[in-house]
Design goal:
Layout lengths: L2 E5 L15 H13 L3 H4 L2 E3 L5 E3 L1 H11 L3 H9 L6 H16 L2 E6 L5 H12 L7 H8 L11 H4 L6 H19 L1
Parallel strand pairs: 2-4
Antiparallel strand pairs: 1-4, 2-3
Helix pairs in contact: 1-3, 4-5
Protein name: ParB-like N-terminal domain-containing protein
Pfam family, one: ParB_N
InterPro entries: ParB/Sulfiredoxin_sf, ParB_N
């Protein structure tokens, strides 16, 4: 796959994307991108032949939001990340300041997909077939800000419980999330 760096203004959100995001989770996504911009090169936005986002729709929206953020607002977000030194915060803030002058997005084209394949890709790109190993999260990443990295707190609370209890808790949480979206 060949990636390209193009003007962000050329990428459009996929209005038909069936995924939604709450304001709280959107702000977490913005923070995630702000504190770790290198990840955008590792996870390019997948676009069709018209540069409509097929994968990375929420990241596209977050980047469009970052374009309009003031330097003070960016620094306020960076200040909430306790892992960053002042020098790292300043370097990241400078990166975003330069980026805002000519906003770009790293993309990969999926222009050879049929309409049916595009629809399939949109769903499969967002599907979560796997589950988190809560013991591994606790043992290998316990000192990391996992909730900032999009791991829900309720998952972190499942370390040390049986698989049967985990399955019940996951089912309850999914039902709760479904009710909240309805």
């Amino acid at each position: 796959m060949k990636t390209e760096e193009i003007a962000l203004s050329r990428v459009s959100e996929n209005e038909a994307n069936p995924r939604t995001i709450t304001e709280a989770n959107f702000q977490k996504l913005v923070k995630s991108i702000l504190v770790f911009p290198k990840m955008l090169q590792l996870r390019p936005i997948v676009v069709d032949e018209t540069y409509k986002a097929l994968g990375g729709n929420m990241r596209t929206r977050a980047l469009c939001h970052i374009v309009s953020m003031t330097p003070e607002a960016i620094m306020d977000v960076l200040d909430t990340d306790q892992r960053l030194t002042d020098a790292e915060k300043l370097a990241i803030a400078n990166y975003w300041s330069q980026w805002q002058e000519q906003p770009t997005a790293t993309i990969v084209k999926a222009s050879d997909l049929t309409e049916a394949q595009k629809k399939e890709f949109i769903i499969k790109d967002n599907a979560g077939f796997g589950d988190w190993d809560t013991e591994a999260l606790a043992n290998q990443f316990g000192d990391q800000p996992l909730t900032d990295w999009a791991i829900p707190q309720w998952i972190l609370g499942m370390a040390g419980i049986s698989n049967e209890q985990k399955e019940g808790a996951i089912l309850q949480q999914k039902e709760k999330e479904h009710r909240n979206q309805a």
